[in-house]
Amino acid sequence: MVNTIPGTRPTSQDTKIVYPAVRRTDVTDTIHGVTIADPYRWLEDPDSKETEAFVNAQNELSTEYLNKFEAREKFNARLTELFDYEKFSAPFKRGNHYYYFRNSGLQPQSVLYQQDSIDSEPRVFLDPNTLEADGTAALGVSRFSKSGDLYAYAISKSGSDWVTIYLQDSKGNKLDDVIEWAKFTDISFTHDDKGFFYSSYEKPNVQEGKAGTETGSNINKRLFYHKIGTPQADDILIYLDTANPTHSPSADVSDDGKYIILTINKDCDPVNKLFIVDLEAHKHVVSKDFEINKVVDNFKAQYDYLTNEGTTFFFKTNKDAPRYKVVKYDLANPNEDFVEVVPQVEDVLSYVSVVNQNKLLLGYMHDVKDCLYLHDLTSGKFLQQVDVPIGTISGLTGRKVDDEFFFSFTSFLSPGTTFRYDFNVEDESKRISVFRQAKVKNFDETLFETKQVFYESKDGTKIPMFITHKKNLVLDGNNPTFLYGYGGFSIPIQAAFSPSAIVFTQHLGGVVAYANLRGGGEYGEEWHQAGMLLNKQNVFDDFQYAAKYLIKEKYTQPSRLASNGGSNGGLLVAACANQAPELFGACVADVGVLDMLRFHKFTIGHAWQSDYGYPDDNAEDFHNLHKYSPLHNINTKTPYPPVAIFTSSHDDRVVPLHSFKYIAELQHTAGPLTNSPLVIRVETKAGHGAGKPVAKRIAETTDKYSFISHAIGAKWVD
Hints:
With about 725 residues, this protein is of the alpha+beta class. A hairpin with a 4-residue loop joins strand 9 and strand 10.
């Protein structure tokens, strides 16, 4: 039922929720001979007064249902307490200084500190919290020059993917250089400290102060070289392919400073072209007239530069190796082609770097758990396994010139430990040591447990899933349960410490489950491909069978089971809510891709066609997408459980129009069939998620878990 007065406060009638009136139109498209109704096309305009009224009315409605949980304030207080612990990144050395990121606990953004030695007194080097009063200015990509004398850093505002690049020296003095409208960029300095490479798009047609709210397609990405001390207008255009406007170039200067490695990506598929420029042959003068050696001029495999020894270059690649391997290529002997250095093994090679001059540091993922090994660079010979705990390794730091490396470890029950590996220690068994360890207030991890199970999906494929809960949990089918999934773009979902999950398990008697669905990168490219394009339904089946496993094994029951996922995971949650609403007691989709027939028309959505398909160009892809697109498959036979859609005004990755159109259609079509709330929460001055200040994260998480807890009947226990 809808309210007939747009923008007015909805009220209940006869226990039915009265939703805001949302105008429907007769807009249609004909795609591959099929007529597609799009009655809420007007919601694609983020700047219209009608869209603004829609957002205001929907937020007013959702606030009522996000506030119904009686223990909301207790949840928020405990969540804030759990967030309030000192967090550190792994340190790294540049020039004559060490650096690391630290957050004292509740600071909006982490602060970059500088030290003269690894154990000397730290001082603030860059504090993003000083840039915006509300903490919505966030540090994106940042790089030091080879000498360590210059630091380039990108700042985003309000969660947008657009960034502005600034420079400062190693003493903290800010330079005059400013690079605007960069996006999806890296930064790489030439070794003479005269400039750096970066990528950008044309400035969008957007009002001042509203960057990130526009929906125009990001095409014709350009690679520039910026000479320090000159205006951006004078930057040298290195690469632009207008014949292929969706291609994405980037540049990396080689370890020895003698070469430029150009990589060209076409979309999100893990494949790229590989071009090399001999910078030394050009007397280290950067120009638009480089002679380019097109080592790989096709999109058949991925090549990630590791290092080079003279003309011999080392790469991590998936060429004939879906779980990745290390190869080398000699520019002086191109007929040898790529030569294997470290072959593919059963585990996924997820990380490679070169340390201590001639050591390969290899990170493998074994059943979604990380392992570290050292190999010889030249021969590929195994040297040593680095002893690490069971869990997830992140933030590995260490370069070819360093005689040490650092890394961070985390798990579902451990907030983070930083380890140091020192090659100067003669006894290999004593080279690794604990450098720092995070401590969380009033949390005893020994009272909880995490287990990994392997359940069968619809087609019999074994799917791994992590399950965390209090020890001695009673399996009576009555436990509040939170199920999370993603399943796409070759991204693995690994163990990570989550304050919200701890509150849910500790005080709400909850079970938290993370399913490692096909489409992710948990087992390499074959696992990814089993959940993409025409195989996408496998991902939805995997998630639904995770729910069925939790129910069958008496962890929970449908009315007490909540589903959640973000971005591609938001698509997952909405598609499964459409296909099997009876499996869930609540569904929360964050910043989801929900209109699968028009996703490619907005911002960077065209790049996702490698995973989802090409609805305009390929009839088979269109029909497949049409079968599961959440917007076009609202269930009219089975009542929905409570559904909440979360999105943000400045999300220029998955633009909020996906969520606007889906919730409008859901309320119109399914609203009359259920007494459950179908609502949307629209955050302002926030984007897709990266760089969101801590206060906003706590507020959003409190809303999410309050909605879930009320819906599935979770009760607070102090």
